[in-house]
Write a structure and sequence with these properties.
Blueprint: E1 2-7, H1 14-30, E2 34-39, H2 72-76, H3 91-97, E3 100-103, H4 114-122, H5 131-138, H6 140-149, E4 157-160, E5 173-177, E6 186-189, H7 192-202, E7 209-213, E8 217-225, E9 228-229, E10 233-237, H8 244-248, E11 253-256, H9 263-279, E12 285-293, E13 298-304, H10 314-321, H11 326-338
Parallel strand pairs: 1-2, 1-3
Antiparallel strand pairs: 4-7, 5-6, 5-7, 8-9, 8-10, 8-12, 10-11, 12-13
Helix pairs in contact: 1-11, 4-5
Length: about 350
């Protein structure tokens, strides 16, 4: 097949997306497909008609994920046209000429359903769930309301629409932007001073911010693929919480798969993962994050419809625990995704 692996973009998870894209690109190439790795924002300056026949390493310039989120203003400066449109040169035409686009995008304008909606209108096939479920899952406030409606246990929260909203949280608490990813825009606050600072920083990202109750306990994640849960991963950061640095810097976090859980707790988390997946109307695959408190109660934090596919990402670990290689997982995601157009 001719496959475009679409990555990059203008989200705070740009660097993570490019490393995910590199992994998927190399995996699918090893399977004999004609594959290109394309930055959705920077695009391709060249002959779009022969792009699949160019003999180059499309992933050669992809750098490892740094400890800090990317400087998006510097990325915008790389576009000769100033970046007036989101899609870079040649992106739409190249994607239309492919058999399918593998969505390796993360965060805003990738995971929020906007690109999926555009592709639907243009007749471009892509991996993952549709535009509507993408949008529902990306907005943590909306997703939380659906979780509550469908009986998925989730931490209590309060939605702020202004930094001046008069809300007095119980400390410690978690402050998070509604549409972020990779823990960008997520803050822990133990007192009024830290809370005020967190609110101020969070509103620099978005106009809506959630204040969520802090639940101390063990962190887990579980992927659901084609409606079926995979083995659970336990996540244990060596320092602090599971933030941007601990997610993508090798050795920062201990990840155990399958998680050290009894059969009852394993079945409970997997069932909650499937319930959350269905509550948001997701298809193909997604990863749900959980925390288990000291009493053993389980809470769903969020759903990720385009979860990371980097070397340290969690879904490849879960698939490997079932005996599925990284390359086979990539092909399986394509196979499931193509069913939407049968």
């Amino acid at each position: 097949m001719k496959i475009v692996v679409l990555a990059g973009g203008l989200s705070t998870e740009r660097d993570v997306s490019l490393v995910s894209g590199r992994g998927v690109y190399e995996a699918l190439k090893s399977k004999g497909h004609k594959v290109i790795l394309l930055d959705v924002f920077l695009g391709f300056e060249g002959d779009e008609n022969s792009v699949f026949d160019i003999d180059i390493d499309w992933a050669e310039r992809v750098a490892p994920v740094s400890e800090k989120a990317p400087d998006l203003d510097e990325v915008r400066k790389q576009r000769k046209d100033g970046g007036r449109e989101f899609f870079g040169p040649g992106v739409i035409k190249i994607c239309q000429s492919a058999d399918i686009v593998f969505m390796a995008l993360h965060g805003d304008c990738g995971e929020n359903g906007k690109i999926q909606a555009a592709f639907d209108l243009m007749g471009i096939k892509y991996t993952g769930t549709d535009s509507f479920s993408s949008a529902l899952a990306m907005d943590k406030s909306v997703a939380k309301q659906l979780f509550i409606g469908y009986g998925v246990s989730t931490p209590k929260s309060f939605l702020l629409r202004s930094a001046d909203d008069d809300h007095k949280p119980k400390f410690p608490c978690v402050v998070k932007i509604c549409n972020g990813g990779s823990s960008v825009g997520v803050y822990m606050a133990d007192n009024e001073t830290e809370y005020a600072s967190a609110i101020k920083d969070a509103f620099r990202y978005e106009s809506r911010v959630m204040v969520e109750e802090f639940i101390e306990g063990r962190e887990f994640t579980c992927c659901v693929i084609d409606g079926r849960p995979l083995p659970i991963v336990e996540i244990e950061p060596k320092e602090g919480f599971y933030d941007y640095r601990n997610k993508y810097q090798a050795g920062s976090t201990i990840e155990t798969c399958p998680a050290d859980l009894n059969d009852t707790d394993t079945a409970r988390i997997q069932a909650e993962a499937v319930k959350a997946y269905n509550a948001l109307g997701i298809s193909t695959y997604a990863r749900m994050d959980f925390i288990m408190d000291k009493k053993g109660d389980v809470y769903c934090l969020e759903a990720n419809t385009l979860p990371g596919m980097t070397p340290t990402s969690l879904i490849p670990q879960e698939a490997q625990a079932e005996g599925m290689s990284y390359a086979d997982l990539c092909e399986y995601i394509i196979e499931l995704s193509l069913r939407k157009w049968e």
